[in-house]
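User: For a benchmark we're assembling, each entry needs the component sequences followed by a predicted structure for the full assembly. Here are entry 17's components. Please fill in the structure.
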Amino acid sequence: MIAKDIPKNEAEFHNQLGTEEACREYLLALRWPNGFVCPRCNHDKGYPLKNREKWECASCKYHCSIRAGTVMQGSKKPLVMWFAAIYYMMESKQGFSALGLKRRLSLGSYQTAWTWFQKIRDYLKPDSEPIMGRVEFDEINLGGSAKNTGIAGRGSSKKLLVGCIVECRGRASGRVRMKLFKTGHGKNILSFVRDNVAKGSVIHCDGGRSFIQLSREGYFVDTFKADDKKALGRHLPRIYRIGGLIKRVINGTHMGAVAPWRLEKYFDEYVFRFERKSAASRFELFFDVLKRIIQHPCRTCRQIFADREEGAAGYVNVTGQAKGRKPSQKEPQWWKDLLPKNPWPSPRGVLG
Ligand SMILES: [Zn+2]
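Assistant: Structure for entry 17:
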């Protein structure tokens, strides 16, 4: 059933993967498409133990769980709940909040739903291959509007700066890369562009000084100096569309309550979904995530957030209008000690 019979909607999804047995067989087929292989000695004969979730190697007698090394390892929750969580996360266009998942699956606590999503989100990193061709670049401001701060764009310390690169594919957008900048300094922009865009590409951007350097390095830079936002929006339409959408996701789905140091994980999720927007079925995204879960070992939340860039604390409220919910009471408390000692300049609209 893995290659054919792709579910087209939620009802079909539940029909095909609505039982523990179906999910187990599905995971088995993904993990060992050509039959059992012992992870310790590579022997190809094994016997299922209890419920076919555990297998014993015929040669070295090693006991192996089909959940081993995946995000589901050690979880007492049935596979069918995990599958549903991944499906809900991928199926919705705007993303799914942890609180929504808790309600939908009747999970015991918000912490469980939150931890599940953080772990699944860790698999959604975009590929690291640089984009070649024509791209748009600009910075998106999160947290507060220019009207509130009085200082526009890069000069404002009340905003979070997010670097954004969008690939131009005809009139449409292709791949997207986003990064939270600690400061709007030219060197941050330069290294972000160098990491994500191949030399020889055309970069459409506003007239920042840092781009003179890029034109010396083999990039073709098309700058546009505009005083009003509308004109810039016409020059960089893809960036402005992405900027509006990401604000809607953070403010709508997550109620504007996302700690800045976690923002990049949300960007990854958004980009993953955006780049697959033309998929015939949302199930393709689910399948893609499940494949990644099987292929790459799962990291703990502590590991996931240990590699964050130091600096950001507080909560971002994207529009600076509606007050965001402060989620710290409900989220696991252990990450408090992960919070940095020297917080970034707090964005406008920060709570508590
Ligand atoms: Zn073995």
